[in-house]
């Protein structure tokens, strides 16, 4: 009996150890009670600008396992004075970046916020945001519910 308990304990500790060694892109944040149900976020990062004073970009993937479509209408970033949702659109054969009023996350799908597509621009960054750190990002959905998750702060030019 003691050996079975010891083996179970060793297995649990080993599993926790392997979980702790996971890569940075595996960060997953499920929203808490009172927040937007069914939404989870993975791979969140804030990429610092190459030139101080320019905006940073926030990338992540939002998964909607809820029972209805949701729309992200705003974002905020801890350590940034303001933010904007941006999306790429095709106009006259040219791909253009512009501010979005909302970005859909249809039920049963995921929506990527990635270079060349949807993303969050973070303006007037606080000096406390430094590569290797983390910051919190809060998404606000149509209807007022929110989802907050950590984002890894990366140096300019870093891969998402």
Automatic annotation (TrEMBL):
| PROSITE patterns with a match to the protein in the record | PROKAR_LIPOPROTEIN
Instruction: State whether keyword S-adenosyl-L-methionine applies.
Output: no
**Which N-terminal stretch is annotated as signal sequence?**
1-20
Q: Which InterPro entries match?
A: LpqE-like, Lxx211020-like, PCuAC_sf
Q: Which domain of life is it from?
A: Bacteria
Q: Which Pfam families match?
A: PCuAC
Record flagged with keyword Oxidoreductase:
no
Provide the alphabetized UniProt keywords.
Answer: Signal
What this protein is called in its record is: Copper chaperone PCu(A)C
List the source organism: Croceibacterium salegens
Q: Write the lineage as a comma-separated list.
A: Bacteria, Pseudomonadati, Pseudomonadota, Alphaproteobacteria, Sphingomonadales
């Amino acid at each position: 009996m003691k050996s079975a308990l010891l083996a179970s304990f060793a297995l649990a500790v080993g599993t926790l150890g392997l979980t702790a060694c996971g890569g940075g892109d595996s960060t997953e944040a499920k929203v808490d009670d009172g927040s937007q149900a069914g939404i989870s976020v993975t791979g969140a990062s804030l990429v610092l600008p190459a030139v101080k004073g320019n905006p940073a970009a926030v990338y992540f993937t939002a998964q909607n396992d809820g029972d209805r479509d949701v729309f992200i209408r705003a974002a905020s970033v801890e350590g940034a004075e303001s933010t904007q949702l941006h999306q790429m659109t095709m106009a006259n054969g040219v791909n253009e970046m512009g501010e979005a009023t909302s970005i859909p996350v249809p039920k049963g799908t995921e929506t990527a916020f990635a270079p060349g597509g949807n993303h969050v621009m973070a303006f007037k960054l606080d000096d406390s945001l430094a590569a290797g750190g983390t910051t919190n990002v809060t998404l606000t959905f149509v209807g007022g519910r929110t989802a907050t998750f950590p984002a890894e702060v990366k140096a300019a030019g870093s891969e998402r």
